[in-house]
Amino acid sequence: MSNENLRRDEAAERSAVISTASYDVSLDVRQAADPDVAGYTSRSVITFTASEPGSSTFLDFIGSSVYSVVLNGRALPVEDVVDGARIRLDNLQSRNQVTVTGTALYSRSGEGMHRFVDPADGQCYLYTQYEPADARRVFANFEQPDLKATFTFHVMAPAGWQVASNGMETARTLLTSDPATARWDFAATEPMSTYITTVLAGPYFKAEDRWQATLDDGTSLDIPLALYCRASLAESFDAEQLFTLTKNGLDFFNRLFAYPYPWGKYDQAFVPEYNLGAMENPGLVTFTDSYVFTSRATDAQYQGRANTLMHEMAHMWFGDLVTMQWWDDLWLKESFADYMGTLGVDQATDWDSAWVSFANKRKAWAYLQDQLPTTHPIVADIPDLEAAKQNFDGITYAKGASVLKQLVAYVGFDAFIAGSRDYFRKHAYSNTTLADLLESLSASSGRDLTGWAQQWLQTSGISTLSLDIAAGQGNDDGVLGDVRIVQDATDPVTGRNEPRPHRLRVGLYDVDGEGALVRTGSVETDVSGAFTAVPELSGKPRPALLLLNDDDLTYAKVRLDPVSLATVLASLDRISDPMARALCWTALWNSARDGESPAARYVDAVAAFGPAETGIGVLLNILENACTAVERYTPAPGREAVRTSFLATVAAELDRAVPGSDHQLAWARTLGTLSRHDGTLVPRLKGLLDGSAPVKGLAVDAELRWHFWHALAANGQATVAELDAELARDTTASGRAGHATALAARPEPRVKAAAWKEAVHGDTLSNQLLSATISGFTTAPAALLEPYVEPYFERLLDVWEGRSIEIASRIVRGLFPLDQDLAEGMEPAEHPVLRRTDEWLAAHTDAPRALRRIIVEQRSHLLRALTAQAAVVGSPAP
To answer: Is the model's pTM score more than 0.85?
Structure first.
């Protein structure tokens, strides 16, 4: 439908004409379990006002049909007022009521009302997911965030199901005409945006508890809590641990924000085939059910889940209570929630490595995103909904959170929280822009933050910081001479070098009496401009390591000076502080990604020092980076030698790791990943699978088994019969996905042709199975996938126009021919796939902006890999 993509100017025009008051929504999903029933009846009764009698506006609805539209008691001719995704409303009165009845469609893409049949037991489950604008796939509405209203939901469903929504359940009534069906009625909500309304329905397992507290201001709260998951996952559902985290988080945020939790109840549902990590629907937060760990999970995975839980809880204030006016200010909710999620884990749980994990993982995502040609300011230019969909990225989340962390260091934590509290009080249940937040923060801190916002929120790109160190008197390298911080802030889009202000520390590290590298001092300084002198360091003895951005206060890439780099490459495992160690790992990785140093050097560092890394989150990250460095950043002629050497290290460390430890599991997973491209250890993988060659303490459970089967299949060592037998022993949804991946990974032309046809031309795969099939298809040598390069570009527009944006994005991003090698003597920009990409972009300047963004980003990832391959492998050691 050509008019699904609502523009920002259209939204502004509509909100200038109308104000919404209430919705009463009825959904009839009693036949959801019948696969032959494609949709369900949806009825919206909307009360709204118009600024001018006689004016016009439109509703949004994406369904299979509209039965009736009744405006102010008058039935409108459906064929005249319904145009694609819009329903025209003319001759408005000052106060209006419109009722729209139609058929909405169940989804398999995770957009709108997703329908999932659990292969484990055949049970049907429903849930909704709307962000940024898919509520219109479930009920007719005014789909934009600044038209808030109260919502009352009614759902008819099988009587034996669990049904939930944002509001409290007020009644459940068996239908006299159909005793197998019940009607659930829910209380009206507080005013909220359409995209955070939600409905959950199905035979979910439910656990219940309560959170009760008396806050510092004397306010007493008694909040019902509930947890949901599929019945087949109930045995693995650690509800008690999740309730403990929830209560700790509610204690923390209620006191921190000094604004009592406003949504009445706090339900959390873990749902299948979810497109996101989680979604902050008030009163009923939804999470991916991959957070219900049915196989062995590391402590880092549990901490990551806790971070997501705290992130979504922070949204109850940042995003739900106070919501951005339009998607330009998406950061007003996501950046804050990302920062607050980490703060919540740090302050309200037993984990003490939350900020190390943030520096190690979240900021790496931001650094990657911020170096793409499509980088954008944190406060972005979002002209339409398609652009909004693409803007849930590392800049909006992790860079924004990083900048907020720096703002806290700049204005002080107390002032930051005082400004947040004022922001909630002033704008509760309304919509805001950047100016509203700056007003509150400036008042609380006594600082004019306009300049800070301009330099950090309204510019794009990332600074690279390095140290320029002169030798001391008499050219004695044992003493520091003049030291200055060099800042390169070149914008990858404009090419302009616009340095930003930074508040950071320079840490001095030396070897102590026990052989550890420890911090012996630090200098905190403000950095501005291209060069900033650090006179406090001049004349000091030269430490073994000078670490820029010690404690990770600012947002910037760091280059190590030659002496410090030599220390890190020789003694990284001797750095005692986990944050300092994580920052050094990040510096090494950025240098490899940027082609500043050979990828093999990073792999060697992981092989040398990874076994001693105590932080499981850091270890998982560096092992993943090392696999990428081997397969994508190492030149093809030397790749096999680098892979073979690293694979030997991985296998040895698997044997040496403490039995049953997280580290043992990390090495086992890496063994499977690397073996997709190397058949050397196929016999060992088979021995792990059939139990003939076990590793003490290693549980080869379902997730790890499919990981190994993926590798065996990619080496042509897994038959269809073997994979089917594995699926028979693991009939879960994750097992079905693992089976799809392994089937498509087999290195046979007919297999790849079938997988391509199913992904690109078919329409039967759900979102999860589509991604699984694409993952298997792309696990192959470039030569086997070369026949699909041209068809990929030929099909781009058809895919984009014929699929939902979620499904199309997965296909376009996942099937881009990313894994390519640089031929000897070839310049990276001359690679045939890059040149074909450029031809397509030049010939399709009018293609949808969101589609072009994906192509441009994938091109950039490929160019970066080819540039890294072009780095001189034999470059001298520092």
So the answer is: yes
